[in-house]
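Changelog-linked ticket: iron/sulfur cluster example.
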Amino acid sequence: MSKVEFNKETGPREVFCGLTSIVWLHRRMPDAFFLVVGSRTCAHLIQSAAGVMIFAEPRFGTAILEEKDLAGLADAHEELDRVVNDLIARRPEIKTLFLVGSCPSEVIKLDLATVAEKLNKRFLGQVRFVNYSGSGIETTFTQGEDGALKALIPLMESSNEEKLLLVGTLANNVEDRFKKIFRNLGISNIESFPPRQSTELPKIGKNTKVLLTQPYLSDTVRDLKHRGCEIISAPFPLGIEGSTEWFLAAAKAFKISELKVHEIISPLINRAKLALKSHKEILKGKRLFLLPESQLEISLARFLHNECEMDLIEVGTPYLNKDLMKEEINLLPDNTKIVEGQHVEKQLDRVRESNPDLVVCGMGLANPLEAEGISTKWSIEMVFSPIHGIDQAADLAGLFSKPLRRNQILTSKTLVTH
Amino acid sequence: MELTLWTYEGPPHVGAMRIASSMKDVHYVLHAPQGDTYADLLFTMIERRGQRPPVTYTTFQARDLGGDTAELVKKNIKEAVERFKPKTLLVGESCTAELIQDQPGALAKGMGYDMPIVNLELPAYSKKENWGASETFYQLIRTLLKDKVSSSEKINPLRWKELGRRPKVNILGPSLLGFRCRDDVIEIQRILSEQGIDTNVVAPLGASPNDIKRLIDAEVNICLYQEIAETSCEWLKRNFGMEYTNTIPIGIKNTIEFINEVHKKLDLPLTNKKELENKSKLPWYSKSVDSNYLTGKRVFIFGDGTHAIAAAKIAKEELGFEVVGLGTYSREMARQVRATAKDLNVEALITNNYLEVEDAMKKAAPELVLGTQMERHSAKRLGIPCSVISTPMHVQDVPARYSPQMGWEGANVIFDDWVHPLMMGLEEHLIDMFKHDFEFIDGHQSHLGHTATNTKDFLNSDEKKEKNSKEGIIWTESGRAELTKVPFFVRGKVKTNTEKYAILRGIPEISDETLYDAKAYFS
Ligand code: SF4
Ligand code: SF4
């Protein structure tokens, strides 16, 4: 492990809770519905995180707990039953219904597992019920996906077929690209988890080789291991370097020669390097501060330093799974300062002191930092945009060069602010 | 338990945040889990503010629950006070904290600070955002003015005369995340000032705790947003005898009535009505021959109470529309909305469920929808033009230009905003006169684009279904040929109407004659 500096911080945090992951999960699995059992706050959160309202009939909703539900838990179960009935009557196309726990439902100890079990019996053959928690007292932002995937694992049948399983939500086009490259490498049996339809869950077993596409899936990985899957240790497929290492790790697990990998991906690499060039010119030597939010921070820092030559001031992460991040941390430059957890005020003090050129942060903090003259990039954009793979390296860099370019255009020629 | 897909209002503590963020020198310590910090983006992204809301969240986690969350609250209060040095501290909890009952307000009061501390108890499981805002504003005023209640005499609205100065009023209710509040305040202050009336304090928007203490220096309160200010106005009336206004100055008639109401309360001479009317272009634009096409346009209105009621009145009396639906999500204002609806002979729709609103909209078949962003989306799906008149806030509703809803300029803005989604009169007239021009017949595109596609596609797609319409009605050659001659932008409507007519009359085949019969029938 390289000599990175680990720090922990506690205090007021400024991160989304795990409910937010519904916003991309429901797009991935259009036959699923996510029903949050929570409060008006929870409903408002997903609404605000998803823009005011983009979807006419969204595939997520909230069963809002009311005073009477809090008084008697038995009633809350009945009420939930009623809501689910209504929902399924209204949306007969739903195949999987996720009951998503929230802070209030956890605090009052609403037992969603039992509810799901009962409903599964009642709707047998029609709708499957799965439950997990996206609560803010247990999970941050992307961890919600971890919970949702973990909840699906028991539904996955066993199979000893040899296969490569890509784990973590990907954009469809990225997924297609990856599959094509793996096929060219000679790996033909490839599946994704989560799949594009909630009902098409891959089968898993001791010959399943798991390659993670997202770094925030600790619990999912643990359960996949319990099912006998082999986890391929690799950095994450962000940027040329990360993706190359990722392909190499997979190839190794499938006993494919390194040479073959290089043969297949080097044209892609050359093309990507060309595309990266203009972004690198802007990013080179610029100082980057990453506030904790998406769990992608460490991989992003690695990419932006190693391939775009940015200087890292601080790399925040809401929590750190050193095991999963091992390969990434190894690629970081010496003396990188990683800060796990958050004290948002102190962190912002450090931002101001260090006067970075670019800050990666949550949506709540972006405009205030811009108003102080600091360029920003929203973390949430990273989980919504196709950024994985060699082909997307330049697009990924573009997400960071754009605010800097914009800043240049506006301050040098046109606008004078404050 | 209530199932919601989209909601019109956030939880009550978001209402409290609106008050805190609107003001200066106030800080709000909110006992809440980390995910609740999303609320910051309402202000920094949607309202595009360059400052973070003055809120410290305790962001407790599950592992804190076993331990001492009360200590966590105190630690955060201490840090917030030291860092932000507020003049008044608001302390409250979000839905989750309410369940663990730490009573942060009481904890704060026990910490020995000498600044006023407002303990906010906002029941998250029964109340919503506007109520939370109203309650917070009221509690803040009460806390800051309670020492003065007993010593003060009732405020005489005419005392400005004795004091030998211009009369002073407070403008109460405008807040962040309120619909166009920023500009409304400017407009109303300008109008009052023209009438010789000074603004003492605007609150909560831009006010500090010191300003709140000065509220009683004014003679009258202007209750600009009833959702937020009415409780406070009522309290100020009860305790200090301060009169407050009831009319919301949206639209010409209401603006005039508002000015009259203020004048009456302050015993100022009334201004000439005609002269006032000329201050806005709405009356003339509405009367101009171009606006003839607005006559009896069917409009469906849904929004917060204040804006929905105002919109109904303007629609009917100032633009000559026919109101075919009126509703609100503000349960607190249900009574007033019902009364307005009754005057208009429609049934008021009081609901939180945007799908119910969509159904009602579909049934009412309006030509224009005045609603919130939710209705804009529903209307888009139904192919009906829509203008947004109310919160919940969208980044689009925070325009860069000056665009109030109130007063004279507000009326101008409303005329433009409501009428532009419709086809303009001059345009509609011209198109009507030239509708037989080849431009509007198949194979040619007008600048309007191909909204209703051309007849060929239109009928071809039907041909696949054996030349039948959905209801099993057949279009004959002559019928189809005639339909081709109808300008494409009304073709869809003509087609549906004709089919509707055919069904009504039990006519199995539509010929050119059927089309004309239908036209006569529906005209
Ligand atoms: S679809 Fe339009 S109105 Fe809806 S959230 Fe997006 S930009 Fe806003
Ligand atoms: S933090 Fe908890 S209460 Fe808040 S939105 Fe997330 S799950 Fe709901």
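Closing comment: Example verified and attached. Residues A 17, 19, 38-39, 41-42, 45, 102-104, 135-136; B 33, 35-36, 95-96 surround iron/sulfur cluster (ligand 2) (CB under 6 Å). Chain A touches chain B through 62 residues (CB under 8 Å).
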